[in-house]
Design a protein that fits this description.
By secondary structure, the chain is an alpha/beta fold. The protein is built from 15 helices and 13 strands. The strands form three sheets. It has a seven-stranded mixed beta sheet, with helices on both faces. Strands 9-10-13-12 form a four-stranded antiparallel beta sheet, with helices on one face. Strands 1-11 form a two-stranded parallel ribbon. Helix 7 links the parallel strand 5 and strand 6. The radius of gyration is 21 Å and the shape is globular. The relative contact order is 0.17.
Length: about 400
């Protein structure tokens, strides 16, 4: 049985909720970036004040800085059930994906096929689509124009022995529905293809078990998972060793450096260990006792998702009763996989105007295309006009959702 999430304790871990300038403001733009937990902030402050030297040298401050960077990689890798040398940091997910695309461009041959989707953020679509200039064929997995979903039957029609790479999101930043990753990965592997999963919109709702998902590549952004502004990239060993090195030639033998040609941001890498501290704090408060990192992450994720489902349900019911806003994606909680609280609306009023009006009601929300131009267009919306996006995570309260609904009632 999943324990109920103690939201008061959760919010005590985030300095933003004690910040006077944010008092009374309900934050509903978490899909663009979450608040940062105090464990990350404390580590970042310590690094900048005590360790801000070149790491990995023999003197004490340098040695400590390097140890903290290594700790971040090893602890987060353990949370997600992968080996430490399969886990890399980069400046952003967009940059990490671009570098990976260059590695594939040097590894694949003309005529090889790459599958991309209409459901992706452009970071996990555009870089791969450019491979057509290198002679690869791009096949597009289209969304259903009504539901926004990716249909498994259509993927089956796209797959054959020429497909070498399948790129798709764990969850769309517009549709908000979790895709059946393990099933898709198995289908791709059956024809000898590898998979690249964009987890940017899913990881904020719980760190994934990459071993269980089975994907060859998993990407997400730590600034959306309560951490510093870094991109996190997991490339499994059997693939990493086959791809072309993108770093300095003398770093080719380091799996954690092969796909990050620029030097890392030492302080932010070290601070990322605070995300593991946060998971540990939630586990200890709610459950306690001995458990491995991946099990702690699984338990914490279950609590987060349960709270999010319960908090999301009244918002979807409220929106479903209206005729002045169309929910893009499912209008209910649950389903075969799951729906996260990222709710995009095609509104009768211009979305930007609604977002601006919500600010007067203490609601922080966003409007635009959110780099999902293809998704919005495929569903019959004007990508230039954009959509209203309401996104929250496990630290959002029932009272904040009521504040949002009152604001929407006045603004739509």
């Amino acid at each position: 049985m999943t324990a109920d999430l103690d939201v008061e304790f959760v919010r005590s871990q985030f300095p933003a909720f004690a910040e006077p300038s944010l008092a009374g403001q309900a934050f509903f733009e978490n899909a663009g970036g979450s608040y940062t937990c105090r464990q990350v902030i404390d580590r970042l402050y310590r690094f900048y004040t005590q360790r801000k030297v070149q790491p990995y040298s023999a003197y004490a401050a340098s040695h400590s800085g390097g140890e903290e960077m290594d700790e971040a990689r090893s602890r987060l890798a353990a949370l997600m059930n992968v080996e430490t040398d399969e886990f890399s940091f980069g400046p952003s997910t967009s940059q990490n994906t671009y570098v990976l695309a260059q590695a594939f461009a040097e590894t694949l041959a003309a005529g090889d096929v790459v599958i991309v989707t209409e459901q992706d953020h452009e970071a996990n679509s555009g870089a791969w689509r450019r491979l057509v200039a290198r002679g690869m064929e791009i096949r597009e997995w289209h969304v259903d124009p009504e539901s926004g979903q990716l249909e498994i039957d259509q993927l089956a029609d796209l797959l054959d022995e020429r497909v070498k790479l399948v790129c798709f999101p764990h969850c769309s930043n517009i549709i908000g529905q979790e895709n059946p990753v393990a099933r898709i990965v198995a289908m791709a592997h059956d024809v000898g293809a590898v998979t690249c999963v964009d987890g940017v919109s899913m990881a904020p709702h719980g760190f994934p078990d990459i071993g269980a998902l089975g994907t060859d590549i998993y990407l997400f952004s730590s600034y959306k998972t309560y951490g510093p502004h870094q991109g996190i990239m997991i490339v499994r060993r059997n693939l990493a060793d086959r791809l072309a090195n993108q770093a300095h030639f003398f770093n080719a033998g380091w799996r954690t450096k092969r796909f990050t040609p620029a030097g890392p941001d030492h302080a932010q890498v070290a601070a990322a260990a605070g995300m593991a501290d946060y998971v540990d704090a939630l586990y200890e408060h709610h459950v306690g006792g001995e458990a491995g990192p991946a099990e702690r992450a699984r338990v914490v994720t279950a609590m987060q998702r349960s709270h999010e489902d319960r908090t999301l349900a009244p918002l979807l019911e409220f929106l479903g009763s209206r005729n002045d806003a169309r929910i893009l994606g499912s209008g209910r909680v649950g389903g075969e996989t799951g729906r996260v609280p990222t709710v995009a609306l095609h509104t009768a009023r211009p979305a930007a105007g609604v977002a601006a009006a919500l600010a007067d009601h203490g609601v922080m929300a966003g409007a635009g295309d959110f780099y999902a131009v293809r998704t919005i267009g495929a569903m019959g919306c004007d990508a230039e006009a954009g959509v209203l996006r309401l996104s929250f995570v496990h630290y959002t309260t029932d009272a904040e959702v009521r504040q949002l609904m009152d604001g929407l009632d006045a603004c739509l």
